[in-house]
## 1
Amino acid sequence: MTANSEINRYHVRAGEDHSGTRLDSFLAQAVSGLSRSRLKKLITDGHVTCGENPVKDPAFKVKSSQEFHIIVPEPEEATPRPQDIPLHVVYEDDQLIVINKPPGLVVHPAPGNPDRTLVNALLAHCGDSLSGIGGVKRPGIVHRLDKDTSGLMVAAKTDIAHAALAKQFANHSMERAYLAVVRGVPNPSQGEISSNIGRNPKNRKKMAVLPRGGKSAITRYRLIRTLGKSDPPVASLVECRLATGRTHQIRVHMTNLGHPLVGDQLYGRAWRPAGVSGDAAAAIAAFKRQALHATMIGFKHPTSTKNLKFEQKIPLDMNELIFYLDNI
């Protein structure tokens, strides 16, 4: 197998040992920098030729000595527009970027948030270093954080990085840890919550633990420390690690356990510990987001295969909340 490439153009020749191999599989082995899914789309779109004839079937069986030409179109400009929004960049190279997302920043444009999102910010920050995900010049969002959850996220800058990171996310080898401030004290102090999560049949904006249907969700939690001087303590700082990545998973699981996250406007009602007044009561009432922070993320680099791990401390607003709860 030989391969020669110029900018956006590849020439590949099959060897004897590739005879009978699917075209998309063969090209994925021969061409670095393009994922199999991207190559499959290039094939079906007519951008792969054998001789002068387009080969539009990804399952086409390769024969020895056949030569294939691949022309990769310039990436289309992303529909969301780049916007200069400050980002806390923790790590960046030519394949990926790790950011510490602040609370209040939506990840993807949506009808309620058409712009001023993380995607808009990444488009502006990364610029021409985005080589195109699926033919579109955009960052590859592998996993999401809720608007009001802070902490670490990784995004891909290339098609091959997106495919590799998405695979790690899907097979649960991407390591993620969160810190949450919850009401009361979980008992036992550590454990595993396993259930199916799906849309709440009574409120489509919420997720819920379902007796049937939904998707399997596993959260492992452990008590870091209790908060407050009262007996029993009013709240706790808990670490949660995800074995799956369902929408609102930690928020739903901790609520179902009887310990909703402090400040959660969707899953927890207004809350003020008994006998609390003054500055402490005001601080708790003013905390209007779920007290949840993605404190650690670990994964294998998509091209170097080096194990990477990043950590970020709790942000200021959660630290102030913990301070007041600790002194009740």
Note: The two ends are 70 Å apart (CA to CA).
## 2
Amino acid sequence: MGLFGGYQNPGPGINPNAPKKKPFFRYWEVLWHNFSKLISLNLIYTLLHAPMFLAVIFFFETNNKFTYAMTGFLLAVQFLLEGPAMAGCARVLRLIVLDKAFFLGEEFKKGFKQNFGAAVLYWFIDALVISSVIAGYYVYPQLVQQSGSQAVYILYGISLAVALVLLFMNYYIMALQAATTLKKATVLKNSLMLAGLSLKQCLLTTLIVVLLAGIMVLLIWLTPLFMFLLAFFPAALIGYTVMFIHYPVIQKFVINPYYEDRGEQNPEEEQETPDEERVFTDRGGTEEPVKKQTAKKGKIIS
């Protein structure tokens, strides 16, 4: 089926030593290669929010003595699942960014189970800070009215600053948990350090996440049918973007120094096989294409 110029014709091949593509182009290339995996990952993440959806349905569609108890139970189950679900996604997204071959279900399960306790702790810290910020939005204006002093807002500003720092740390926490065997306290400490070392990347990521979320909200506002897309893509796209921007920072400041101190090379990076161990040499991109020869027509004897 040579519909596009004849695939049998030998060409120069792909040069294995070609310069690495710029991050912007590699982002779209890796995204395209793993598009179906990102959709599958988003579906798994959505399914793990079934307790939350059931809690909403139970709360609004029932009115009996079990309504509040069952709603609270379902929300508690969702709370326990949220962190491990993000840990499973982080393990898969790391492999996608590294462009490794893997079985999605198996890797997600490993990330979910192996990091369950740590992920619940990280999510508890996130939920605590989020709750304090939301509560402060309602409490601090009332305190200002009671005290008559605008200085109370300084405390709210501090809580917002802490929330922003924690947001930047979250760009690294689950990725570090998925990629290393560090203790939980060390993961948090390193996440804080990496957030300080990569403020530009953190601000870029925040801008992109806000933009993607804004586009999704606009689409849903235009027509509620776009809510159907929430099950298939946005969460995985945001997670992939965060991992793509921030995992190189983890490699630079955490993983590579670890192997350099041991005199080893980071196994996540592509390694060249020594010449004496090579069975053959890949000359892709350097060979001259074989010119197609056409046979001359002979004379026809009538």
Note: The chain has a mean pLDDT of 86.
## 3
Amino acid sequence: MATSAAKLLPKEEFILPGTRSCAACGLMLTYRHALKALNPGKTIVAVPASCMTVLHGVYPITPVKVICINNPFGATGAAASGIAAGLKALGHDDYTVLAFAGDGGTYDIGIQALSGALERGANFLYICYDNEGYMNTGTQRSSASPAGAITSTTPILAKLQHKKNMIGIIEAHRIPYIATASPAFPLDLFDKVRTAKSVHGSRYMEVHAPCPPGWGFPNKDLIKMGKLAIDSGIHVLYEIKDGVFKLTSRSLNLAEKGRKKSIAEYVKGQTRFRKINQDQIDYLQHFVDERWSEFVQRHHRTD
């Protein structure tokens, strides 16, 4: 996958000023660049109850220039499947169906509908914006929350379990395109959405979307936190196209130069990790290092 020059980004904005999202929202920045990579006039978006419904606003007033259909929390995969089937029946093969859901609606509540859609090979792009918790309803724990993080449903002890390997579950469905991205690296995100648009069948992307109020860091540090996530290896940028795995962008550079930052540096700027101790940091560091090594080895096997 070639990296785009910034000049390829459309100048037109498809999210107008005045959304109801929080300041410095990682989701909004993700959505902004995803829509630039698509053709919003030929895109239909399906969203569950989430921060996305807050961003879109209340009908008939919305700041987003795209058709959007709200669906029940656990039904995003089913809703997107139905939209894709309807478009096919009508002969509208020039539309992109975009499902856009958070980690709660993907890893947890929506996993059944999503798995069924992927098993059938439904023709849509599913983007999970992963802010590692149920941010829209009070920062509750999800299975995407990292070990050591405090949430409103783990107020005494931090979450003990590591993050679910959702990509591994998605990959088991043998779909043609899977990728990860970050709003801190918008050109990589833009390129991957463009690539996904060109692929027929089920496509899945997972975008690590820092959340200032949920994670507890200043609004001004949104991009800094996104970059720290990549530089520490707790989130890794890669794509899997027709089963071929490749590291991309900053993660590829880190693999070649071997200068990954420590997890301690990543967690210290977030109040959700305020109770983490050294044993928990070591536990998380071991998990990240082991997974990073697997990714690098896999990249070299297909290089």
Note: The chain has twelve helices and eight strands.
## 4
Amino acid sequence: MAHIEKRHSRGKPWRVRYRAPSGRERSRSFARKADAEKFKSTTEADLVRGEWHDPRLARATVAEWSERWLRTKAHLKPYTRAGYESLLRVHIVPRWGDLELRHIDRLGVEEWVADLQATGLSASRVRQARQVLNSMMKLAVGAGYLSVNPVEGASIPRQPQGETRFLSVGEVERMAEAIRPPYEVLVYTLAYGGLRWGEAAALRRQRCDLLRSRLEVTESVSEAWGGLQFGTTKTHRRRTVMIPGFLRDLLATHLATEVADDPAALVFTSSEGDPLRNSNFRRRIWNEAVTEAGLEPGLRIHDLRHTCASLLIAEGAHPRAVMEHLGHSSITVTMDRYGHLFPSDMEALAEALGAARGRALAALPRPSRGPRVVDLRADRQISQ
């Protein structure tokens, strides 16, 4: 445990010596004995509770710590990591960068979140910035730099629930007819295959098993750091997508007329033969087609994936089949996003419960006098 010793020093004669959890001896000097005793009591309590942290580590600045934290995120998708870098550069380091970790407090975090909202930054972006700072401080606690996370529990701005669009079969047809050739095949692939944009843009000839009406989804492409980054899918899992016969035939024609014979050739490319960029495609082709098809402005490419889910559910697909078709990480994700589309069985269950009671009563000996029944219309009791 800690102990106090008197030193022959004019400045700070009282020194507290203690041993850190690592076994290394630490000490701190004080000018007054009362301060030394207070520090000794606090340090002993923290050591017993396992909450002690090295005060020298907490002197690291947020800017320094952000670089170390970001290196732990090398496993993330390029798009996600680029987003973290942007949040650090624009919203976190300018506000906190020069401060030591130990000087960040809960009130300061609350004020920072409020300031971000006051600038007109979207609720989604504010939440993301707070999430990054929270992750940094959480790691600092785990690494022994801090004893508590000052961000944990801080206010989180409410994020408006975005409207999810589901197209009908007819609307999908109108979109496919309106869009510039040969991208009608891409529209059908997104709407009936349920692929994410990045998965469709990274689809290759060798992954199209049209004899068995299957697409092998193995990789994805995203925009990050000013370029396109190919990698695994969002969930890092491969999956097989069964496609309807009409889409198989359309893809067969598309592969024969629009795609190079190279097995690694991309199925969907720009007019120059380059990989598709979501931003360019949306601006140059998609928005014009939405207007031409007479669909609601603001329709997103991703809404075709939602449309696939709604079409599957309308045809009676089981939630797990929807999950596997769309490549969700769990059934929970599927139900959270599309659970309201599944037909409710509550009325049928209530009827079934009533029928079960009726069958049970019919099997019992008939009583000499029936139960009393309330006539709700007349608000009086009558006897059967």
Note: The chain has three domains: 3-52, 59-142, 169-341.
